[in-house]
Amino acid sequence: MVKVVFMGTPDFSVPILNRLLTDGYEVIGVVTQPDRPVGRKKTMTPPPVKIAAEQHGIPVFQPEKLRDEASLQAILNLYPDLVITAAYGQILPKKLLDAPTYGCINVHASLLPELRGGAPIHYAIIQGKEKTGITIMYMAEKLDAGDILAQTVVPIAERDTVGTLHNKLSEAGADLLSDTLPKLLNGEITPIKQDDREATFAPNIKHEQEKIDWHKTGEEIYNHIRGLNPWPVAYTTLDGKPIKIWWGEKQPLPKIEQPGTIVAVEKDGFIVATGNSTAIKITELQPAGKKRMPAAQFLLGKPDLERSILGVEDE
Q: Taking the CB of residue 285, how many other CB atoms lie within 10 A of it?
């Protein structure tokens, strides 16, 4: 029986861990990030992978930094035959990469060498891609640069958000790993080196990237909104106050207007001019300090919204 250490943190990783257990692999330990404060009350909350592991009675390790010698040694003392990571959140030190008999492999949510980094699902949508996928690869000391073992393509639908695509990719990752592991353990796979010249990157989203630039095209803004939904959520400003934009629809704009101008108000939303002839109709939003709501509800208290300009203080 192959002894596996699984390393992962968010919801994305849970179906992959569960599939390993369903397929009968002996998961002798799970490594995940420490519990973190969540919400306004800063409630200490365990990562989803920790919850899943404890449900199965698997020992859990939560080092703040994997390069801490004591934390690293605790994992090495498990003597795993194989380490599998999926959205763990830290680069593995060489000492761990070299330890398992079958190496360390990673389930990554892009078609490498495209979109290396921590936010490949966000960038796939933000960049307007029509497809992405899952790559299973050997891990290396360089970020997401290891040799490729297997890949599968996942189409991106026109209305996909980070949330919907995340779920598709998580399940695709579980399926691909289930298919790949027997071949890997039987020596039936020839790894393929990545071409670093073709690499693109998807670093974690920074707060300043969440703000909508209304000078961009309507298509780009639409992709921006759905590429940050449901986290961390795109935003703009109205009367100097931030307002999160949860959803918007593309529609033609007969006359080019100043970008960010609210050119029309309808019962179910308001239409905003962009940098081209494709406007965005905002249909779901969240004012500062309030709950997410349909735009129709927001408009009940805004009778004079038309001709306002979103993000005007940045002009």
A: 25
